[in-house]
Amino acid sequence: MVCVLFPFVLSFDKKVAFYKTWKYLFPAIFINGVFFILWDILFTAKGVWGFNPDYILGIYVFNLPLEEVLFFLCVPYSCVFIYEVFNAYVKRDVLGGCGQRISVLLSVILLVLCIIYYDRLYTLVNAGVCMILLVFATFVIKFKNLGRFYLAYLVSLIPFLICNGILTKLPVVIYNNNENMALRIYTIPVEDVFYCLSLLLIPILLMDYFKSRKENIN
Question: Is the pTM of this model over 0.85?
Fold first, then answer.
């Protein structure tokens, strides 16, 4: 909950006016949350990861700790907030036309990971989902703010990795190395970098879709 406190308070900043996006953001976060919670339920049942009872309240929703469910509401809110702050305060698209090239490079890397680690469930599904999202955003709907998205994503990685570093160091979340590459950033599985990308990209694409649909109706 701490990760969402400052973004929530600053949502009423006059220049960002993040609260004005809530009618698009909350449905996007809900849909995103349903997807990731279903993913979480499946992977918990499959033993891809688990939760240390010593560090959780003991309240479960759909067989997941309450804290885990709240994670999929709070973290996307905070990350999308960062994206909107950059849109409001950084007028120049810093990455310019590099968005498509970044997507292509990442997609190739993710495809290679899917091939090499086809027998590691977390790596395969995580890389596969992320690759499909990138291809969809870049070449199917041709999302126009890819450069801005990647910049916000890089900044979002900082609090995301700090948060995950704490969760995996204690540990609150315990990963099964038989289902991932067993490569770590400190105590965090490398795959979580792509997990974060998907967690941020889905609500942003949905928000953009809801806004466009509203404009077309009007």
Answer: yes
